[in-house]
């Protein structure tokens, strides 16, 4: 399966103007002499490069939900008949986790078309609070 390599992350903007805005593209680190490493997302169009909050960076899984929405690492999914679950990248593969109890779910590739992205762990952590 071929898939687009794409990342997303939330902009880190000390002015507060764009802080927290999602940006999509290629992910990379750079090192500034005076202040250590910075995480960046560079748009596919090459039009900008922004510092991002490292903890918000997530990779596109190559899969779409039932509404055609791209599924990224850190997204919260809802499957019909299954509690809300979290997308993570573990040991070189994307995994879907049930949060309570914290267990990996075995979901077939064709079943991803039945799920729906309902949020993500950074903007909507409360969506996982009620899971059992």
Write up what this structure looks like.
This protein is mostly beta strands and 132 residues long. The chain folds into two domains: 7-56, no CATH class; 61-128, SH3 type barrels, CATH 2.30.30. The chain is 0% helix and 48% strand. The chain is built from no helices and eleven strands. The strands form two sheets. It has a six-stranded antiparallel β-sheet, with no helix packed on it. Strand 2 and strand 3 (36-42) form a beta hairpin. The radius of gyration is 16 Å and the shape is globular. The model has no long low-confidence stretch (mean pLDDT 78).
Summed up:
The chain is an all-beta fold. It contains no helices and 11 strands.
How much strand content do the residues show? over 45%
Largest sheet: 6 strands, antiparallel
Number of helices: 0
Give the helix/strand class. Answer: mainly beta
What are the secondary-structure elements, in order, as H or E?
EEEEEEEEEEE
**CATH architectural category of the largest domain:** Roll
Shape, per Cα inertia axes:
globular
Tell me how many strands there are: 11
CATH level-1 class of the largest domain: Mainly Beta
The CATH H-level homologous superfamily of the largest domain: YopX-like domains
List the domain count as a whole number: 2
Task: Enumerate the spans where pLDDT stays under 50 for 5 or more consecutive residues.
Answer: none
**What is the overall pLDDT average?**
78
Q: What fold name stands as the CATH topology of the largest domain?
A: SH3 type barrels
Radius of gyration: 16 Å
Separation, N- and C-terminal Cα atoms: 33 Å
Adjacency order of strands in the biggest sheet = 4-3-2-1-5-6
Indicate the percent of residues in helices: under 10%
């Amino acid at each position: 399966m071929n898939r687009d390599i794409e990342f997303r992350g939330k902009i880190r903007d000390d002015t507060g103007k764009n802080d927290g805005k999602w940006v999509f593209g290629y992910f990379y680190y750079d090192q500034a002499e005076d202040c250590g490493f910075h995480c960046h997302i560079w748009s596919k169009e090459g039009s900008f490069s922004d510092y991002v909050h490292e903890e918000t960076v997530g990779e596109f899984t190559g899969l779409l939900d039932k509404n055609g929405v791209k599924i990224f690492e850190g997204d919260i999914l809802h499957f019909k008949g299954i509690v809300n679950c979290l997308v993570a990248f573990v040991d070189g593969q994307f995994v879907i986790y049930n949060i309570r109890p914290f267990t990996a779910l075995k979901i077939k590739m064709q079943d991803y078309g039945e799920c729906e992205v309902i949020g993500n762990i950074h903007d909507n952590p409360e969506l996982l609070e009620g899971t059992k």
